[in-house]
Specification:
The protein is of the alpha/beta class. The protein has 19 helices and 16 strands. β11 and β12 form a beta hairpin.
Length: about 450
Amino acid sequence: MKSVLVVDDEKAIRDSLKMILEYAKYDVTFAENGQAALTKVVEDVFDLVLLDIKMAGIDGLKVLEKIREIQPELPVVMISGHGTIETAVEATKLGAYDFLPKPLDRDKLLIVTRNAIERKQLLSENKEMMEKVRRQGEILGESPKIKEVLALIGKVAQTDAKVLITGENGVGKELVARAIHRQSRRNGKPLVEVNCAAIPNELIESELFGHEKGSFTGATTQRVGKFELADGGIIFLDEIGDMNLKAQAKVLRVLEEGKVERVGGSRQISIDVRVLAATNHDLPVAIKEGRFREDLFHRLNVIPIVVPPLRERREDIPLLAAAFAEGICTQYGMRRVKFADDALRKLQSMDWSGNVRELRNVVERLVIMNSSATIDASEIDQGPLVGKSSPDDLLNIGGTFQDFKDRAEAAYIKKQLEAHNWNISKTAESLDIQRSHLYNKMKKFGLNREDEHS
């Protein structure tokens, strides 16, 4: 039952409002003056306040100001027998939801009451939803290495320094970029994310810088590029190590001049953009091999942030697993599950070549397939989707036909990547698929190059 606080120094008005509101199934509480109203607002929870303006002692407008300080989201509807347009305007400026003149019209009172309470509920639900989104985007962990990353984010966020975020696939590099944006002075402006590996080479320049109508076959309209869209905010160039050299040269020029030129255009467009970049490649090695520009590397690598792989922060796995399980249960409307101690030890002992992303996928599978309220170690024996499995292993794991097809496809793609030394372009060519398609498959299966730390 929704609760309404009625504040009026006239008993007849209070009794009248009580009869109307209780008949409409509202729980009604009274306050005879402004001070009593403020005390009740501090001590109790209400969905709406009906507040008289003219009262002895503290008048309604002063009470309204105080309520806005105590509970900013609590809707207040002003009522008065001496109402004027000026008074109504002043009350609205102070944050009143609406203004009702006396004598009160029953139907209008109920409509305004219902609408005000529904608006409060919507605002509360929206706030809760945004909080859930924020929590999902948080970097979780208490390990020393992740604390170092969080501390570094806090230091650089308020500056406009360029940041190069490095780490293996699945460690959460994009979460670092979003955390920097959230804590920066540009958080009211857009964060534009660009996955450089997922965009075909022939389209990367149009995607980043835009193009003019007719500048190439298929350019039927003018297009604004990502750098322009990020004006005033931040652009996040994810997987920049996969960007071709021609596009790298143009990005370097934008960083040096603060201007972009659309493909097929001649006009220089000034922009104010902070640049964050991320890669899972070893860029110094790529520079030696002629695949990445050294001058661009030094432009981007003002503040380096290295995100540790999950195997170097195993103490965070119980916290991550619990958070993922809770989020998945909420997302699918399932009952809550928890991990037994032996299950957590099992998770902590695994290699996690796909890092946090792989852990999240495994937790999702375990939560969905689990039939009890507790997940124990025996249910984790299947392990990652693909590792160093033999063909017989792929056949003997079990699961649905789709599970088998996914395992087989992941194993085949991994073998081709290894055969081409994890060169995305060459592997995509050998598989006769687009590079962006291969990248999406790698992301789906949690495939990444295993180095000396594996």
